[in-house]
Amino acid sequence: MNDQLTFLTDARTRRTDPPTSRNAAPSSTQAGELQQRILEAFRRYWTLTDDELCELLPDAYPPTVKTARSRMKNAGLLIPTGGTRKSARGRDMVVWTLPVQS
After folding, report:
1. Could you give the CA distance from residue 74 to residue 62 in angstroms, rounded to a whole number?
2. In a 3-state reduction of DSSP, which class is residue 96?
3. How many domains does one find in the chain?
4. Which residues, at least 6 apart from 3, have a Cβ–Cβ distance to it below 8 Å?
5. What separation in angstroms does the CA of 82 have from each of 32, 42, 79?
6. Does residue 102 fall inside a structural domain?
7. In order along the chain (102 residues), what is the average pLDDT of each group of 10 residues?
8. In terms of C-beta density within 10 A (0-12 exposed, 13-18 middle, 19 or more buried), how is residue 53 classed?
9. What is the pTM of this model?
10. Would you call 91 helix, strand, or coil by DSSP?
11. Residue 39 counted as domain residue
């Protein structure tokens, strides 16, 4: 019965899922929230480098932000503009944007 209650209160996992899946479920929700925040940043600023994106999300761990942006690129949610901007370290960085909706 306790497993059934857990199942009902946590829609991201099933009672048959192993403990590792149950432990990972909250992080998948956090990843979704981070993706939403990244999309909001791009809707507001339109073009951003990874470093600029990290500056806009100071409470998020930069490698996690960059991984989320990479996954969003792979999913077609972000595309490179073809341009670059200099980082604070003087290195060229890819500039990303939202794809144009037709």
Report:
1. 18
2. strand
3. 1
4. 15
5. 27, 16, 9
6. no
7. 39 65 50 90 97 96 94 96 96 96 59
8. buried
9. 0.69
10. coil
11. yes
